[in-house]
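job 3f2a | input accepted
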Amino acid sequence: MHHNTTSHSTPPTHPPRTAASDARSTRSPPAARPHRMTIPPPLLAMLASTEAPLPRVLSPAEAAAACEDEEVAGGQLQEAGFRMALNADVAATTKMAEGINAFVAETLKLESALRLKL
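job 3f2a | predicted structure (118 res):
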């Protein structure tokens, strides 16, 4: 049964490469900007307009102590091992690539829109 299902599978397809996709693949977004995209603009504006204290509500140490999830590989997983496992999982690698490509595309749109307003 296994041989029958795998022998008739189609090879993975990839979208055709274009000059735009080549330019995106060689251009990484600046490290200082992407994190700002996850914060809603009205919140950024509100924070920028006030000098009021912003007390810490969440504690990383308390969150870690309260976490009941098991550590992956007993907490001994290094970056190289993670990359090997991710590369071995075709679905995860594909979804990661799709997410990164979508993020880069949205970043380019945002930068273009900002340039028009400046």
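job 3f2a | Residues 1-12, 19-34 have pLDDT under 50 and may be disordered.
job 3f2a | closed
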